[in-house]
Amino acid sequence: MESFVIRLKNLRESRRIYQREIAETLGITTRAYQFYESGRSEPNIKTLIALADYYHVSIDYLVGRTDVPDCNTTDTEG
Known about the structure:
Distance between the termini: 20 Å
Number of helices: 5
Largest sheet: none
CATH class: Mainly Alpha
CATH topology: 434 Repressor (Amino-terminal Domain)
Oligomer: single chain
Helix content: 55-70%
Mean pLDDT: 91
Number of strands: 0
Order of helices and strands: HHHHH
Low-confidence stretches: none
Shape: globular
CATH superfamily: lambda repressor-like DNA-binding domains
Number of domains: 1
């Protein structure tokens, strides 16, 4: 899940959002979100979906299965 950790942090920093803000929106503790960004913990599927929705990216992008962040675009290069 190294890609997830890097992408999650980059998405948040690129939008200049505090971890606390995202945690509140997701209904989790700031500490839980910090653990996601540090790789100490992984989100459950419900939280993973919420993160993808929050950042407007696909789950595949979040977890490193594609380099295309737009959830409405597919990566056809295989």
